[in-house]
Design goal:
single chain, 194 residues, three-stranded mixed sheet, 39% helix
């Protein structure tokens, strides 16, 4: 075994950390074809299917008015889905109690809609001013949202040259990526919809 005191005086940064450099070689293999490009519409459709897929909270939000029913849905909402346990928040009082009394029916409706929920938890939740999922107000807001390319179309951002919804450029003069960068430069961390 070599004596550590007799090592060369030239050391790399990795030697001080006890790390040894590793090298990776990537080779292009002739005849291996790259996978074909996928259209933006197909990518968005795949994303929508994933969100609405089994066990996804976004899909549950969309289906919640149908699952909980017209009387219960406006007063409660799914808050968290983790490990097959769905946490539902409701306004305290009779609506929280109604959820507890209808636990088994709600669990059956969730499973019947294709969601793999094994248990339900309920907690008090004071609603915020945002519209209830699936409500007419939510539909109106979404219909005119600036990021919808199916409504506003798609064009090239004048600031960065990336394809972006024309609704975003009409609102801010550039795409949401540039908007977020501009807000970060101003020291504002948050939503580009501000």
């Amino acid at each position: 075994m070599a004596d550590p005191s007799r090592r060369s005086s030239r050391r790399g940064a990795g030697d001080y950390l006890g790390l040894r450099p590793q090298y990776r070689v990537n080779l292009l293999v002739p005849g291996a074809a790259a996978s074909p490009a996928t259209s933006l519409g197909a990518c968005l459709e795949g994303l929508r299917r994933h969100w609405e897929g089994e066990g996804q909270l976004a899909g549950l939000w969309q289906a919640w008015p149908r699952i909980a029913g017209s009387h219960l849905a406006p007063h409660c909402r799914p808050l968290n889905l983790q490990g097959g346990v769905l946490t539902v928040g409701a306004v305290p009082g009779p609506w929280l109690q109604a959820l507890q009394y209808n636990r088994h029916q709600l669990l059956g409706a969730l499973r019947g809609a294709g969601f793999s929920v094994r248990d339900l938890r309920f907690r008090q939740h004071y609603g915020d001013p945002s519209p209830a999922p699936g409500s007419e107000v939510e539909a109106e807001v979404w219909a005119r949202h600036p990021s919808r390319i199916d409504v506003h179309g798609l064009a090239e951002c004048p600031a960065c040259g990336r394809p972006a919804p024309t609704g975003e450029m009409a609102l801010w003069g550039h795409c949401s990526f540039c908007r977020r960068s501009a807000l970060a430069d101003q020291g504002i961390d948050g939503n580009p919809n501000c």
